[in-house]
Amino acid sequence: MSVTTEAKPSTATIGQYLLDRLHALGVEHIFGVPGDYILQFDKLIENHQINFINATRENTAGYMADAYARLRGLGVACITYGVGINITNAVAQGYVENSPFVVISGTASTEEFASCRYLHHMFGSHKGQLRDTTQMDIFQKMTVAQELLDNPLTAQTQIDRALDLCLTYKKPVYFEIPRNQVEQTIALAPAASVTRLDEDHEALAEVLEEVSEFLKRSERPVIWVGHEIQRHQLSGPILQFAEKYRIPIVSSILGKTTISEYHPLYMGIYQGVMSIEEVKEYVESADAIFVLGVALNEIETGMQTANLNAKQKVLASSERIKVNHHHYPRVSMHALVNGLASLDLNLRFRSDYPAYIDRRLPPFKAVNDKKTSVQRLFECLQGFLRAEHLIVCDFGDSLFGCSDLILEQDNFLSNPYFATLGFGIPAAIGAAQAVPQKRVVGVVGDGAFQMTCTELSTAVRYGLDPIIILLNNHGYATERPILEGTYNDILNWSYSKIPQILGGGKGHYARTEEEMEHAFQQAFQERGTFHLIEVELEQDDLSPALHRFSQAIKKSSS
């Protein structure tokens, strides 16, 4: 481990130091809900360069911070103790999908715990204890660091350590601050920058030699990239490696848009039996495969149907490097990927792979008075998308329909692994704050919309202008083909009228293809306010991708 130091010692308060460190790491917005245990910290934010964005509830603040982190590298959510615990759904998602965001919770002071057995927002009696540990215990299961900032002598080290772990592992961390410690002064030591892994250069050379040898024997290699490549900003060297030797690329669904889908080497999403047949056939007949930054969970592998038959395999993630049967614990994914890009081999592979851009559909033409469908909705949407549009979608047919869109690099955001409903709208708000130079296009189902639609009021308050496309198929369409029942039905709202309630935004209702195309034209042309487009669909209308998913789910659960 190597350590470098910089800057001169000074003083700050615990709260001020935490905010300054976050700002130095690129954070310009904190998402949260105020509460009495966190008000002192909220007041500090009000007087800081960082902006506080009020969410309507803590869990949606977590989704906003999650989306912000995926796009900016670090996000922050701020809650009060106890009642703010509903943020855990967002934190759990961030943990399994590698989203580096910070949760800051206020709590009661030591004096308050000592003077009262039953404090509000706490989890029961605390007789004989100087603090409630319940919330810390809960977050321990879903964060890579948990720190109680109750000691001015150790606060700086605790903050630096937790943020270092957050950025290294791309997972959430948790800070708990007693309200009487926010303004406590600390003497700052020189900031330490820690390099966590001393690379084994001999082992790296051995890895690259092994890869070089099997590439020379290969005739049909393929690269499968996942979300960790995006999180660690390694798309560039992977593309350099692929272009040098003309190796085609597929992505996982969580890693969609790791590279531009207009790139001629890109074939599409590989997801086992859920893949398009020509992509599935090519990947599963490859004689060498590079699995880079892919989480090999059941969703990414198409309900465990991925068939990686290649004799030569490289498996690389933030947790392990494996080449065939050899493990390299002291070689990082960063070092391996950059090493691949630096290889200089006299190789050029054949180009008989099915390029994704070759599957582009002809321009959409609306049929007058024809009721629209899920497939036609996404065909229409494709024609409006440009490089400045960022797709943010919820789980369900919103996700599966969007998975077949052709998008530019880093223009897709979703949660296919944890698959919580209600992510889409708050994530669209977080994304709009993170990358204001892009126009966010949120795609959600009616079930997910009913869970978190109150965050459209946040769009009104802060002048954000996402386009929200609502697939109204009258219930939980993902579950219907698995096992139908009345539990999949929900009350049908007048969705397009919701902007009237909020006092901002514009609503559109589309039943036919012509109405849908007209609504899209208005929304994409007008900036400055959000547009909510309700598209009426048949209850049993599924995208081709969702149909493949449903069949895979039924087979795995039978």
TrEMBL record:
What are the binding positions for Mg(2+) in this chain? Answer: D446, N473, G475
What's any GO biological process attached to this entry?
Answer: aromatic amino acid family catabolic process to alcohol via Ehrlich pathway
Q: Has UniProt tagged this entry with the keyword Zinc-finger? A: no
Query: Which Pfam family, just one, is annotated for this protein?
Result: TPP_enzyme_N
User: Does the record carry Metal-binding as a key word?
Assistant: yes
Q: How is the cofactor bound?
A: Binds 1 Mg(2+) per subunit.
Name the UniProt record assigns to this protein: Pyruvate decarboxylase/indolepyruvate decarboxylase
